[in-house]
Amino acid sequence: MTRTHYYTASTLDGFIATRDHSLDWLLKQPFDEHGPMNYESFVADIGALIMGASTYAWVLEHDAGWSYTQPAFVLTHREFPVPDGADVRFRSGDVAAVHAEVIAAAEGRDVWVVGGGDLAGQFADAGLLDEVWVQFAPVTIAEGQPLLPRSLDLELVDHARNGGFLCARYRVVTPAE
Fold this sequence. Notes:
Layout: E1 4-11, E2 15-17, H1 24-27, H2 39-43, E3 46-52, H3 53-62, E4 72-75, E5 88-91, H4 95-106, E6 110-114, H5 117-125, E7 131-137, E8 145-146, E9 152-162, E10 165-175
Parallel strand pairs: 1-6, 1-7, 3-4, 3-6, 4-5
Antiparallel strand pairs: 2-8, 7-10, 9-10
């Protein structure tokens, strides 16, 4: 059964990026790329991804090249270039309408909501978010882009230490009342 995951890193005070979308705080943290709850192991089970326009723009600007082999859906009303050889599909509208298409593209594998906490929150609001994976970095930044700007009830499924990070995987129980 295909599950939809939000996999991200966060500061201890609950931000995934600074106000200007910088990840400098994250990129200087020690993390074992082969340790527990690492990206490579996570992404091996991902059949499709979905991200918002801000995340897509950040990846285009900061990534050395398009590193995803899966179909990537970008929710946007803006026009963007597509990296050579990338399977990028631009969509707009409600996440529930796009989710069925993303699930089909995943071909029985899982879906990753990449980047923005608000986008992950929209999936949670629609009852379509199954798990939240967070790598908590040992840093605070006091303000920025929030991890998940929603009220949710979560159940801790797994946890580990990887380098300086506390890694946690949660099952979404239900949107909090």
